[in-house]
Amino acid sequence: ALKAGPPNCVLCCILSGLLEINYAFQEALNSAGEKLVVVDFSATWCGPCKMIKPFFHSLSEKYSNVVFLEVDVDDCQDVASECEVKCMPTFQFFKKGQKAHSVVISDIQNRDAMLHLMAIQYSLNR
C-alpha cells in the first residue's frame, strides 16, 4: 500500500483496489504542487530497504518542504510497474507530477547519491 513515514510524510491512503491505488498515487503527486516528491519503492522482505528506511524517515523530518511517500511494491505492483521499478530500494524524484530522477540504493553508503540528487533537483526547481 501507499504509506507515510514519520511526521512530515504525506499519508496517501491504504486501499485494496488497484485502480484506487493508482489513482491515490497520482493524486499524491498532483497534490504536492510545486514541491519535490521523493518516493521510496521498497518491500517488507528486502534487507537493504529495511536498512535505508530510518535514513529516509530522517529526511522526511529534516526537509518539511519536500513530500516523502513510501510504496510497497508487493501491495502496489501496478504503481511499481508503471514507474518502471526493477529492483529495491528505488527512490524516484517527481516534480509537478512528472518523474525527474530515479536512483537505486543498494546499500546505506550510497545514500549520499540520493541526497545529492535531491539537492540538485530542489535547487533547480526553486
Automatic annotation (TrEMBL):
Sorted alphabetically, the keyword list is: Disulfide bond, Redox-active center, Signal
PROSITE patterns in the cross-refs: THIOREDOXIN_1, THIOREDOXIN_2
Residues covered by the Thioredoxin domain? 1-125
State the signal peptide span.
Answer: 1-24
Task: Kindly give the PANTHER family that the UniProt entry links to this protein.
Answer: THIOREDOXIN-LIKE PROTEIN 1
The keyword Repeat is annotated on this UniProt entry: no
Q: Is Ion transport included in the keywords of this UniProt record?
A: no
Task: Write down what this protein is called.
Answer: Thioredoxin domain-containing protein
